[in-house]
């Protein structure tokens, strides 16, 4: 098991135990600066209401960087979270861009957002 895998396993354990701050920290450390980062796990935590305001800020700060890097999957996940939090304007912009960057699921997410 690589270091990366054992850290991911540890983060999953924290999550199961309801230790959200530890889970968030560990998931984030696996993502930040990683070439293929998607921030999927921290975004899922955001959707499940497991992050506080300052953690969301940290997450959004990193996602804004991925937005500049034109990272399709991270942009899509960012859009889904923004949509969930009711930021329709930002979510629309993000999901539209994800769609343009070839993320198949973005079209469905965008139509669901606009039908709300």
What would you note in describing this structure?
The protein is mainly α. The chain has a single domain (3-115), classed as Tetratricopeptide repeat domain (Serine Threonine Protein Phosphatase 5, Tetratricopeptide repeat). Helix content is 75%, strand content 0%. The chain has 7 helices and no strands. It has helices at 3-16, 20-31, 40-47, 53-68, 72-84, 88-100, 105-115. Helix 1 (3-16) packs antiparallel against helix 2, helix 4 (53-68) runs antiparallel to helix 5 and helix 6 (88-100) packs antiparallel against helix 7. It comes from Polynucleobacter tropicus.
According to CATH, the homologous superfamily is Tetratricopeptide repeat domain
Number of H/I helices: 7
For the record, the count of structural domains works out to 1
Q: Which assembly state applies to the chains in this document?
A: single chain
Shape category: globular
Question: Average pLDDT, to the nearest integer?
Answer: 94
In the CATH hierarchy, what is the architecture at level 2?
Answer: Alpha Horseshoe
- What percent of residues adopt helix (DSSP H or I)? over 70%
CATH topology: Serine Threonine Protein Phosphatase 5, Tetratricopeptide repeat
Note poorly predicted spans: none
Percent of residues in β-strands:
under 5%
Using the CA coordinates, give the radius of gyration. 14 Å
Cα-to-Cα separation, first versus last residue: 44 Å
Tell me the structural class: mainly alpha
Q: Can you count the beta strands? A: 0
Top CATH class: Mainly Alpha
Write down the secondary-structure element order. HHHHHHH
**Biggest sheet: strands, sense, closure?**
none
